[in-house]
Design a protein that fits this description.
It is a single chain. The protein is of the alpha/beta class. 36% of the residues lie in helices and 14% in strands. The strands form three sheets. It has a seven-stranded mixed β-sheet, with helices on both faces. The chain has a four-stranded antiparallel β-sheet with strand order 9-10-13-12, covered by helices on one side. Strands 1-11 form a two-stranded parallel sheet. Helix 2 runs antiparallel to helix 8, helix 3 packs parallel to helix 8 and helix 4 crosses helix 7. It is globular. The structure holds pyridoxal-5'-phosphate. The site of pyridoxal-5'-phosphate has 13 residues, from helix 4.
């Protein structure tokens, strides 16, 4: 605290991102980054773009990126917004579509940035408890006063809600905006993007940080009715005309095109997820069915915190949430097969030390 801080800053409760440690080399499975490199074509594009043109501002409307996105999503360019990571796009969306005094609904177990944005923008919200199996009670999201925000697949559980449920929520919120954050959709879910033409109250958020291995480039997107996109642009242009730099714009366009590469690499991630889940179950873990690039697990006999600490001293970083309902769970990102074998070996050691033999 400082006397120089504004009232706003005094009451903020900032999001705490997963550690990015530099004290030693970890197997880093705590922030759901992709274990595989970005597409070589993307890297070449970035290198080629690092030239004299960087002295000039980038295109404020990111045209080449939006054109590639429009082709990929099979919607008009006017249905897409691009931003500096999906966190930024989400922040703009909270400003663009939610009003103070009208409760925004989201699940109690979900991406912890949502309550952070509501506090930043002075919005009101109500959380809807997920069921014991972490599934979403769909009807509880009907008739919101202020709008709805959902992650699908949900974070950090990895549980997917079928599109019929998304449609029911849209049907029962015709006067408010429903934001569906699909950060992990390409690892096995079915995207709601195909619904945007039919539902003017739907905004779908995507990121290149997970499936497209570009967490370091900061690229996020919103897909929705042109009126919603116009609102996002009004916010953006009141904040920073150039949220995406020249390198990100061309890298993003290329990443939309090189699907062959990404499908192959992420096919490996999905295969590894299945194998790793089966190995965990053999060790007695409860593994939630995941359609993301992470698994959400607990062990009936050893606490999540002990496992977290045991893994960390062995050079493996996973995510532990000290929060009600999930304080005995760990979220483990899916790395390469070699990395996940190290995790299994470390877990076996930890369980043995706790007197549990498998
Ligand atoms: C990772 C993640 C994001 C943030 O992605 P960026 O594009 O890197 O900002 C947004 N939503 C969810 C649910 C995520 O897990």
């Amino acid at each position: 605290m400082s006397k120089y801080w504004s009232e706003l800053v005094r009451r903020l409760q900032p999001y705490v991102p997963g550690e990015q440690p530099r004290d030693r080399k970890y197997i880093k499975l705590n922030t759901n980054e992709n274990p595989y490199s970005p597409s070589p074509k993307v890297l070449e594009t970035i290198k080629a773009a690092a030239d004299d043109s960087l002295k000039l501002y980038p295109d404020p409307t990111c045209d080449v990126l939006l054109e590639a996105a429009a082709e990929y999503y099979k919607v008009g360019k006017e249905c897409i917004f691009a931003g500096n990571g999906s966190d930024e796009v989400l922040a703009f969306a909270f400003m663009a579509f939610f009003d103070p005094g009208r409760q925004v609904l989201f699940p109690d177990i979900t991406y912890t940035f949502y309550p952070v944005y509501t506090s930043l923008f002075g919005l009101d919200y109500r959380t809807i408890p997920v069921r014991n199996d972490f599934s979403i009670p769909v009807e509880e999201f009907y008739n919101s006063h202020g709008g709805v925000i959902l992650a699908n697949p949900n974070a950090p559980t990895g549980r997917f809600m079928p599109l019929e449920s998304v449609v029911s929520i849209l049907e029962n919120n015709r006067d408010t905006v429903v934001i569906v954050d699909e950060a992990y959709i390409d690892f096995g879910g079915e995207s709601a993007v195909k619904l945007v033409n039919a539902w003017p109250n739907l905004l779908v958020i995507h990121t290149f940080s997970k499936y497209r291995s570009l967490a370091g480039m900061r690229l996020g997107f919103a897909i929705g009715h042109p009126d919603l996109i116009t609102a996002l642009n009004r916010v953006k242009n009141s904040f920073n005309s150039y949220t995406l730099d020249r390198l990100a714009i061309v890298a993003g366009a290329e990443a939309f095109r090189d699907n062959e590469y990404y499908n192959e690499k992420n096919g490996m991630v999905i295969k590894t997820r299945k194998r790793f889940s089966a190995e965990l179950e053999k060790l007695g873990f409860e593994v939630l069915d995941s359609v993301a690039n992470f698994v959400f697990v607990s062990h009936p006999e050893v606490s999540a915190l002990d496992i977290f600490t045991g893994l960390k001293v062995r050079g493996i970083l996973v995510r532990y949430f000290n929060k009600p309902k999930i304080s005995n769970c760990l979220r483990i990102s899916i790395g390469t097969d070699v990395e996940m074998d190290c995790v299994i070996n470390a877990l076996r050691e930890i369980l043995n030390q706790a007197g549990i033999n498998h």
